[in-house]
Q: What sequence folds into this?
C-alpha cells in the first residue's frame, strides 16, 4: 500500500521560520564585520595608489603638493587632469556615503589662496611643530599625515571631503570610520590605520596664509561622525 507524506503543520512551519530567523540574526553581525573589514582593506589599497601619485607629482614639482582652490579645484582633480591617476574612484573611501565625485575624496590640507600648493620643504625647514604643545613633537616624515579618511560636520550631509583641518570640524577633520581607526597616507609614503586613541602621536600639514606648517591634530570625527577632541592633548 502506497504511503502518502504527511504535510507540515502550521506550527512546524512557524518553528522552522523562527529557527532560520535566529540563525540569520546570529550570522548578520559577522557578515557586516567581514564587509566592513573588506572595505577597510580596499580603502588602504586606494590610499596607497593615491599616495604614490602624490609622490610622483611632488617629484615633478619640487616637493610641492597641489592642495586646492576651494571653489573649483582640488588635489584629486589635479592628479587626474595631469594623468597621475586615471579617475577619482580610488580617491574615495569605500565606506563613505553621499559620494559626489571629486568633492568627496580623501581629506588633504588645503590653501585658500593662490598658488594653492603646499610646500613640503617649507614645512620641514622650520624644524618645529606649531601650536601650544608643539615642542614635544619631532618632525618625522613617518608621523606626518598627508591624506586621510575625513569628514565634515554632520549638518553638511557629506561624510568625506578634501578639506582637512587640524581643529575646524566645519571644514573637515580626520574620520575614524573603520572601527575607530582612520586610514592615513603619510609623508614618507606608507599607509596605516591610525587608532583614535593614538591620534595625539601624529602630525599633519597646516597653513597660515600661504605658508605651509606642521602641527598636531586637535579635533577628529569618531565612527559615528561626532566631533571630538583628540585624546591625550
A:
Amino acid at each position: 500500500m502506497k504511503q502518502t507524506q504527511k504535510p507540515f503543520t502550521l506550527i512546524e512551519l512557524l518553528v522552522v521560520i523562527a529557527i532560520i530567523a535566529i540563525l540569520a540574526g546570529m550570522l548578520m553581525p559577522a557578515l557586516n564585520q567581514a564587509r566592513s573589514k573588506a572595505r577597510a582593506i580596499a580603502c588602504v589599497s586606494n590610499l596607497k595608489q593615491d599616495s604614490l601619485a602624490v609622490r610622483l607629482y611632488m617629484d615633478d614639482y619640487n616637493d610641492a603638493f597641489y592642495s586646492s582652490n576651494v571653489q573649483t579645484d582640488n588635489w584629486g582633480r589635479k592628479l587626474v587632469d595631469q594623468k597621475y591617476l586615471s579617475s577619482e574612484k580610488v580617491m574615495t573611501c569605500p565606506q563613505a556615503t553621499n559620494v559626489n565625485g571629486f568633492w568627496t575624496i580623501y581629506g588633504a590640507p588645503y590653501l585658500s589662496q593662490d598658488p594653492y600648493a603646499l610646500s613640503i620643504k617649507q614645512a620641514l625647514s622650520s624644524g618645529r611643530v606649531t601650536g601650544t604643545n608643539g615642542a614635544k613633537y619631532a618632525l618625522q616624515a613617518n608621523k606626518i599625515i598627508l591624506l586621510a579618511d575625513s569628514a565634515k560636520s554632520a549638518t553638511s550631509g557629506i561624510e568625506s571631503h578634501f578639506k582637512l583641518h587640524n581643529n575646524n570640524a566645519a571644514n573637515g577633520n580626520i574620520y575614524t570610520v573603520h572601527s575607530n581607526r582612520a586610514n592615513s597616507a603619510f609623508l614618507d609614503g606608507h599607509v596605516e590605520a591610525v587608532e583614535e586613541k593614538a591620534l595625539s602621536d601624529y602630525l599633519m600639514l597646516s597653513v597660515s596664509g600661504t605658508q605651509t606648517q606642521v602641527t598636531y591634530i586637535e579635533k577628529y570625527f569618531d565612527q559615528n561622525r561626532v566631533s571630538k577632541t583628540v585624546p591625550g592633548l
DSSP finds three helices and 13 strands in the chain.
